[in-house]
TrEMBL record:
<dbReference type="InterPro" id="IPR023582">
    <property type="entry name" value="Impact"/>
</dbReference>
<feature type="domain" description="Impact N-terminal">
    <location>
        <begin position="20"/>
        <end position="125"/>
    </location>
</feature>
<dbReference type="GO" id="GO:0005737">
    <property type="term" value="C:cytoplasm"/>
</dbReference>
<comment type="similarity">
    <text>Belongs to the IMPACT family.</text>
</comment>
<protein>
    <recommendedName>
        <fullName>Impact N-terminal domain-containing protein</fullName>
    </recommendedName>
</protein>
<dbReference type="InterPro" id="IPR020568">
    <property type="entry name" value="Ribosomal_Su5_D2-typ_SF"/>
</dbReference>
<dbReference type="GO" id="GO:0006446">
    <property type="term" value="P:regulation of translational initiation"/>
</dbReference>
<dbReference type="Pfam" id="PF01205">
    <property type="entry name" value="Impact_N"/>
</dbReference>
<dbReference type="InterPro" id="IPR001498">
    <property type="entry name" value="Impact_N"/>
</dbReference>
<dbReference type="InterPro" id="IPR036956">
    <property type="entry name" value="Impact_N_sf"/>
</dbReference>
Amino acid sequence: MSDLYYSIASSVSDIIYKEKGSKFIGYAYPVSSEEDIELALANVKQKQHKARHFCYAWQLEKDYSRFRANDDGEPSNSAGMPIFGQLQAFNLTNCLVVVVRYFGGTKLGVGGLISAYKTTAQQTLQQAKITKHTIDEQFKIQCNYDLINVVMRYIEEDNLQLIHQNLEMNCNFTLGVRKKEFNRVLQKFQKVYGLDVKHPSLEKEG
């Protein structure tokens, strides 16, 4: 399983696509919760208050496990799913794409709508700055002073994140590592006599 995920760095607004008199306006937002999504949708609806259709799709979580598509009154699967398809095409999560439609008097048909919503979403995401992130695991280490040099050397060797350290009575460290390297790095620390390594997976093993 990949330990990478992709999102967008900042919002994109007012990307306009026209088809047979209808105007489609695209928006993209970085989001991390359904509350963020509701706020972004409310912002678009306030800005484009005369529009009838606010179709959208979003995807959440580092593992891309939560998503939704909404046609908002357009024929079934003619708007939300084409937008969602572009989230998948760009491999994005923690992202909301909204496409607003103003009807221009000429019906586009289901095929025309699918094409228009897909194209607007695509052009909107093409304007976004896409950022790459790693999925990391955290674990904790406790040791005596005489092992500090070993811990610091391992941190440097494996380019680990030093999230927290406390060098008082006992030395405590909270470290972060890419998920795909986690088991190897954890075992490396576990082999050092005197290091107390803590992680939920170790507690489950007893």
